[in-house]
Amino acid sequence: MVKREVGEVARHGLAAEGDRHAGLGHQRQVVRAVAATNPDIFFAASYPPDSVGLIRASSEVGFKPKIYGGGMVGLQATAIKTQLGPLLNGVVVYDFWLPWAGFATDEGRALIKKYQAKAAGAGVDMFHASTRRFWEPEFPDHDSRLNLAGWAKKITGLPTMTVGSVGLDADFHTAFRDKGAAATEAHLEGLCAMLERGDVDMVAIGRALLANPDWPNKVRAHRFAEVAPYDPAVLETLV
Prior knowledge:
The chain has ten helices and six strands. The protein is of the alpha/beta class. The strands form two sheets. It has a three-stranded parallel sheet with strand order 1-2-3, covered by helices on one side. Strands 4-5-6 form a three-stranded parallel sheet, covered by helices on one side. Mean pLDDT is 79; it is low at 1-22.
């Protein structure tokens, strides 16, 4: 499924072979602005279209910091690896996804608990737990409400941040391409309930914030009807 979705990104011109400059407008501006500061380290937290665009733009402008990479989703997919080829040389990136609940095993849960405890002991201040859909429980057989961030807090006692299609009516892969409806009231009520119960401490927001700069104020006040739906067209304007 990742290959199909990544392939769709390529077909829309963000990483198409033979048209290297297509779709690099805002990524090129970002890279040039960062390169002008001559940093030693460049860290990017991005989804596939921007991961591909940033790497192509960096190659185009000759941006070569000492360390380049971060949480660049998509670079682990065979389709993108094939397209970028040697442009990936030297990129420091992760290649790990936690299996969702249907495929989680007792061994996997034990591994997570072991290393979450180690991280807490090593002085980690908080956990930022990213999942594709924040509203899905990580281990529903054990708790029908806790997502990955909730479990991280329960196990370690440390503050956690949840993220994953927050404020969208569909997951973020669909949001790359399609105009969506506003997130349902139940969806947003569930998010507020997680915070009020103390399951998580913080929420990371992406596309929903682009369509609603005051999204946190609206949701905090439960003014869900005022939340505008996300539209990919907002990405065409660089503020």
